[in-house]
Amino acid sequence: MTPRIPAPRLAALLLVTLLFPIGCTSETASVPAEKKAEALRVAVIPKGTTHEFWKSIHAGAIQAERELEGIEIVWQGPQREDDRAQQLALVENFTATGIDAIVLAPLDDRALVAPCQQAMGMGIPVVVIDSGLQGEMGKDFAAYVATDNYRGGQLAGENLGRILEGRGKVLLLRYDEGSASTEQREEGFVEAIRKFPGITLIDPERYAGATRDSAQREAENLLESGSYDGIFCPNESSTFGMLLALRAREMASKVRFVGFDASPGLLDALRVGQIDGLVVQNPMKMGYEGTKTAVAALRMQPFEPSVDTGVAFVTADNINDPELQPFVAPPLSEYLDE
Amino acid sequence: MSGTSEPQRTPGALARQLRGALAPFIGMIVVGAVFAAFAPENLGPKTWRLMLVQTVPVGLAAAGMTYVIISAGIDLSVGSVIALASVTGALTLHGGHGGEAAVLAALLTGATCGLYNGLLINVLRLPPFIATLGTMGFYRGMAKWLSGRAAVRPDDLDGLDLWLRPYPELSGAPAFLGLPIGVWVLLGVTGAAALVLRRSVFGRYTLAIGSNEATARLCGIRIGRTKLGIYTLAGALAGLAGLMTMVRLTEGDPTSALGLELDVIAAVVIGGASLSGGQGSVLGAFMGALLMTFLRNRCTAMGLPNYVQEIIVGHIIIGAVAVDQLRLRRRGS
């Protein structure tokens, strides 16, 4: 019963392994060939690739690519969305394959420190965007370009308290364990909402999880087990999951609901009053400034080591204000061909 | 069954055996050649070392999973065991008990999880798929509970963090022949597991159970005891993989290795194992794991989007199993 692999099996294995890589690569291989060989290659590494948010970061990076001469953006996220080990391997792989600079939105503020140190040690500047990294600026990474997440959470708390006129029960659905940026938002929110003595904060320490799907389930369960006057969710997927759950119970627009981040679905809900307000970031600016900073560091030009890309509170009333358009309607189609 | 206890020693059989052992390597070399042709840049020894480092967790778990799959079982709880062991390892370090204790804690955690899987399968007569589907949630929940739902971050890794540095010379990490300790652990475990499978009574029993459990029982093999051994071994190796994951991330993260069981199973299947049991190779599983790391690395080097890589790996799995089915049908007719 010794396992053996007969010739046909070998042949088929060879065929399969040969055919598919060729089939897949022949179309895409021509793209980099068109670009200048001597262009500086900047890897932009998001936490995932499916959220609207990351598409805006991508667009911003391409905006910088078009504006600056002689650079090429390489956009790649961890294969499994939100997988720390895979993002770590991705940074290592880019470092090993001789990338010129890295723009990284770290999934974990500690696990990603070592590969960033490594890259910096090899003379590859790393610009951290979106979420913080527990390291020394200038040594473990070159610069930090992000939203002030604590301020964003505060903004949500202040506005939800104002909308509720300082009275009622407020539910906080947290995002995910160990995600630094959303934890800061949650902290900021809690700090601001506690300033309203008439508001009871209900924080069951339940987490929405990484996807809309998991957020929807968690939100349904929370709505099943209690009644609330106001709700806050700290990111796009948790806000969307909560919105779906509210709609299913015919509670949308009956509860005062503040979310975080903008996507077309959330903005539509804002316009019809199912969401009262959204704290919005400027991810396109984050991608743009992050890339520009990385190139400046690479070219030994002066750059700002710490950039706040700003937050705003959008409601149905101010959604069409011109100064809010970069936040709610970034011109993605100009940069992404989707 | 005649071939189980006494491997044939004719030249033809030897040649076939050699070819069988080499098959996954040949697949890898072909894929490697194709990708090296499209992305030749930076495919030196340092990149190969990096790929070995990245293969360590999946490779270790795959060595154990090979035994499980050969015995016609499956272990879906591997990813959760890795997370749980990385948490207990990190908690041990956090409590200041040192590196050796952390290694022991991770191994014991894994072995206990594996033993429990085996007991569920033996005592409650649950199909392995169901038993480990259940414990997948159980162990993941345990990991989140023990860690307090956030990554456990020991202040001092007691030198364990030097085990898997992809560039040991840069940080003065211990290395032998240029490879960090963790890689040697993987190579050692793979070699030992391959040897035990081919040469020991336990290994032959594993193959016999997977080929035909009823016949193995009639031959006097203690099925229950052997299965307990198989699942405990697989668990212990998953525990070791958990330790390595903790070393890589420098923290015990309860959400790590989510869905990793599928990578592990894929590595074993690409390496020539049959999910209907009785067939498989530890070396093949190692090569399967390395192949997936290699594809990831080359897709990054070529700037290919993730979906291309998912399409490729998906087809390699389909191809490997399709060929296996073809072989089974031929044997049947």
Outline the fold blueprint.
The complex is a heterodimer of chains A (338) and B (333).
Chain A: H1 7-28, H2 30-34, E1 40-45, H3 52-67, E2 71-75, H4 84-96, E3 101-104, H5 113-121, E4 126-129, E5 143-146, H6 149-163, E6 168-172, H7 180-193, E7 199-202, H8 212-224, E8 230-232, H9 236-248, E9 256-260, H10 264-271, E10 277-281, H11 283-298, E11 306-308, E12 311-314, H12 325-328
Parallel strand pairs in A: 1-2, 1-3, 3-4, 4-5, 5-11, 6-7, 6-8, 8-9, 9-10
Antiparallel strand pairs in A: 10-12
Helix pairs in contact in A: 3-11, 4-5, 6-7, 8-9
Chain B: H1 2-5, H2 11-38, H3 45-70, H4 78-94, H5 98-123, H6 128-146, H7 168-171, E1 175-176, E2 179-180, H8 181-199, H9 201-211, H10 213-218, H11 223-249, H12 260-270, H13 282-301, H14 306-332
Antiparallel strand pairs in B: 1-2
Word description of this protein:
The complex is a heterodimer of chains A (338) and B (333). The N and C termini of chain A lie far apart (54 Å). Chain A folds into 2 domains: 36-147 and 283-309, 3-Layer(aba) Sandwich (Rossmann fold), CATH 3.40.50; 149-281, Rossmann fold, CATH 3.40.50. With 338 residues, chain A is of the alpha/beta class. The longest helix of chain A has 22 residues, at 7-28. Chain A has 12 helices and 12 strands. Chain B is mostly helical. Chain B has one domain: ABC transporter involved in vitamin B12 uptake, BtuC (Orthogonal Bundle). A two-stranded antiparallel sheet of chain B has the order 1-2. The chains are: A alpha/beta (338), B mainly alpha (333). At the A-B interface, α1, α4 and α5 of A face α2, α3, α9, α11 and α13 of B.
Q: Notable features of this structure?
A:
heterodimer; A: 338 residues; alpha/beta; Rossmann fold; 2 domains; 6-stranded parallel sheet; 6-stranded mixed sheet; elongated; disordered N terminus; B: 333 residues; mainly alpha; 2 strands; globular
